[in-house]
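Anyone up for a design puzzle?
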C-alpha cells in the first residue's frame, strides 16, 4: 500500500495540513494547485476518508484528516530513517533539511554556515527560516530549531552546539556620566537598553557571577525587539545593554563599549532542538556536527574569549 507515489501524496498532504493552503503547498513542492488537489483527492479515495474541508476561502482538517496527518508524519519519519540506515547518507547526506533559527543568530552565523554546508554536502536541499518565536518542530515540519537556550519541551531532544554568554556593556561616555555599577542590584538604578529574543522575559536580567545567580528588573528610556538597534543605542551612550559576547567583541576591542560588572554574565549557549525521531536521521546528525565545528572554530564562529 505504501508505494512511492503514496508516500509522495502523504508528504503533499502533510504540507497542505501544515499550511492549510493548496496554493502554499503547491509552491513549496513546485507543483500546480490543480496537481496538488488531484493528488489529495486520490489519497482520500485510497484511504476511504475525507481529509479536508474545502471552501473558496479556507482549508481545514477533518477529524479523520487530523488522525491521518499524525500517522503520516510518523510514517514519513520512519521511512526517512530507514533510508538513512540503508544508504551512505552518513557520508553523503541527501534530501530535504528544514531548519529554523532566530533573526540575529540566523543571519550572522547560521545562514553563512548553511552555505558552507551546502558546498560540503551538495545533495542536501536546505530550507532556513528565521523567526523570532519558538517553532513547533513537529507541526511545522522542521528538522532542527537552532536557538539560544534549551527549553525542555516534551518530545524534543536538545543537542549542545556552542557556548555563548551574554555580557553587560555600555559606552565609556555613559559610564563616566552616570557611574559604573558595583553590583547587579545597582543596574535597576541605571538606564538599561532592553531587547527580547523570541519569547524570553522582557526587562528581567538573570546573571551568574561570583555569588551565584542574581536577578534584577531593569528599565530604561529605550527598548526594541532587535539587538542591532539596542547595540547602536548603547554605542551612542544611552545606557547599559546585555547582549551576546560575540556581537560586541569588536566594539569592546576598539573601546567603543566597556564591560560592566565583568565578573557577571548570562549563560546563553546555542542548542539545536530536534524531535526524537529526527535525531536519528543521518542528515540531522551531519548538520549538528557541522554546526558544532563551524560555530566553534570556523569562519563564522561565535567569538571566544
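Challenge accepted. My sequence:
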Amino acid at each position: 500500500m505504501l508505494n512511492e507515489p503514496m508516500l509522495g501524496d502523504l508528504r503533499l498532504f502533510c504540507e497542505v495540513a501544515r499550511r492549510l493552503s493548496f496554493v502554499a503547498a503547491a509552491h513549496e513542492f513546485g507543483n500546480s494547485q490543480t496537481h496538488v488537489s488531484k493528488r489529495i483527492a486520490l489519497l482520500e479515495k485510497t484511504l476511504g476518508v475525507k481529509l479536508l474541508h474545502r471552501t473558496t476561502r479556507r482549508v481545514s482538517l477533518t477529524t479523520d484528516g487530523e488522525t491521518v496527518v499524525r500517522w503520516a508524519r510518523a510514517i514519513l519519519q520512519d521511512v526517512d530513517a530507514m533510508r538513512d540506515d540503508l544508504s551512505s547518507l552518513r557520508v553523503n547526506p541527501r534530501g530535504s533539511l528544514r531548519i529554523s533559527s532566530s533573526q540575529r543568530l540566523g543571519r550572522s552565523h547560521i545562514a553563512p554556515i548553511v552555505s558552507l554546508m551546502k558546498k560540503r554536502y551538495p545533495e542536501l536541499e536546505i530550507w532556513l527560516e528565521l523567526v523570532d518565536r519558538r517553532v513547533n518542530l513537529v507541526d511545522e515540519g522542521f528538522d532542527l530549531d537552532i536557538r539560544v537556550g534549551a527549553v525542555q519541551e516534551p518530545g524534543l531532544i536538545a543537542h549542545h552546539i556552542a557556548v555563548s554568554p551574554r555580557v553587560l556593556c555600555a559606552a565609556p561616555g555613559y559610564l563616566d556620566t552616570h557611574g559604573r555599577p558595583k553590583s547587579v542590584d545597582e543596574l535597576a538604578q541605571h538606564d538599561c537598553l532592553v531587547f527580547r529574543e523570541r519569547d524570553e522575559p522582557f526587562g528581567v536580567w538573570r546573571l551568574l557571577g561570583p555569588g551565584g545567580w542574581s536577578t534584577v528588573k531593569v528599565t530604561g528610556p529605550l527598548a526594541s525587539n532587535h539587538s542591532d538597534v539596542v547595540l547602536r543605542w548603547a554605542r551612542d551612550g544611552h545606557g547599559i545593554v546585555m547582549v551576546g559576547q560575540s556581537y560586541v567583541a569588536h566594539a569592546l576591542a576598539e573601546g567603543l563599549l566597556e564591560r560592566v560588572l565583568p565578573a557577571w554574565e548570562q549563560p546563553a549557549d546555542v542548542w539545536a532542538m530536534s524531535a526524537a525521531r529526527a535525531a536519528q536521521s543521518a542528515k540531522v546528525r551531519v548538520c549538528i556536527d557541522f554546526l558544532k565545528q563551524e560555530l566553534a572554530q570556523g569562519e563564522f564562529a561565535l567569538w571566544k574569549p
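A detail worth pointing out: Residues 15 and 277 are 18 Å apart (CA to CA).
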